[in-house]
Write a structure and sequence with these properties.
The chain is of the alpha/beta class and 277 residues long. The chain has helices at residues 47-57, 102-107, 184-190, 217-227, 243-259, and strands spanning 2-7, 28-32, 38-41, 61-65, 89-94, 125-130, 136-138, 141-147, 155-161, 164-169, 196-200, 231-235, 265-268, 274-276. The protein has one domain: Metallo-beta-lactamase, Chain A (4-Layer Sandwich). Helix 1 (47-57) links the parallel strand 3 (38-41) and strand 4 (61-65).
Length: 277
């Protein structure tokens, strides 16, 4: 299983010399299954670059898993080039407990006067699905779901392909209860023995804002340790967080891991992170 990131920033895209290493595009993750399945998680601004690559590669079948409907996770959808390519077959999956249907959520990103092309006018074949709590298969990949502890709700994903597993929990607040969310021990169970975990690490202890739907990086690290994850990537970087500040967070996590005598590999996810499991 290949995991490639195209955007790791939270809330709003950013640019500038202070954000070069970890990038400014918002959430978009590409996963390639062992049988060639293409799965995309979220349609933040990073999906624009990915879409251009898929058109060049003439990829026709695409599966998009949406975590929730906040703008930073949908901003790039109207600029996803396969939408305008004849022969593209795009499957979009959304959480069963959201406040609107998957189709309606997506169509709202392409409404006039905010965007010149309506969803009904695209060239691709679009199919919408509702994720089920018991999980579902996309080819060789088993997709498991869990409710996010986030404002307006959402869903986290665990992708399993053979003996390999990748867990993606963005926009998940571990220290504050939201309607529909779960306690930290439930997330630790969901992440149990994952080969790779990306978890929301928006805040430091000094700038944490309880109730905004995001985690302190040390809480996310604790979850990674308790779950027995093998690799842990800090994700959903704060819009103001500069490269050097993110690196300090990583250094602190590595210090804690070393103190505990653990082998957990910690890093911060960038817009160019690529890992093979």
């Amino acid at each position: 299983m290949l995991v490639r990131c195209w955007g790791a920033r939270g809330s709003i895209p950013v640019c500038g010399r202070e954000y070069i290493k970890y990038g400014g595009d918002t959430t978009c993750i590409e996963v390639r299954g062992s049988k060639g399945e293409l799965i995309i998680i979220d349609a933040g601004t990073g999906i624009r670059r990915l879409g251009a690559r898929l058109v060049r590669e003439k990829t026709s079948t695409i599966h998009i898993l949406l975590t929730h409907s906040h703008w930073d996770h949908l901003l790039g959808f109207p600029f996803f080039k396969p939408l305008y390519t004849e022969g593209s077959r795009i499957h979009v999956y959304g959480y069963h407990a959201t406040q609107d249907s998957v189709r309606n959520i997506i169509s709202k990103t392409m409404l006039p006067p905010y965007f010149p092309v309506r969803l009904e006018d695209i060239h691709a074949e679009l199919t919408f699905h509702t994720t089920e709590p018991e999980g579902f298969h996309i080819g060789s990949v088993l997709v498991k779901t869990i409710p996010l502890n986030h404002t307006n709700r959402g869903v986290g994903y665990r992708l399993e392909d053979g003996e390999r597993s990748f867990v993606f929990l963005t926009d998940n607040e571990l220290a504050h209860a939201h309607p529909g969310g779960l306690p930290p021990d439930k997330y630790a169970l969901f992440c149990r023995d994952a080969d790779l975990l990306f978890h929301d690490a928006e805040y430091t202890p000094s700038d944490y804002m309880p109730g905004w739907g995001h985690s302190v990086y040390t809480d996310a690290l604790k979850l990674a340790i308790e779950s027995g994850a093998r690799r842990f990537g800090l994700f959903h970087h704060n819009q103001e967080r500069k490269d050097e500040e993110i690196e300090l967070m990583v250094e602190d996590c590595r210090r804690i891991v070393k103190q505990k005598g653990l082998k957990l590999h910690v890093f911060a996810v960038s817009g160019d992170t690529e890992l093979t499991l």
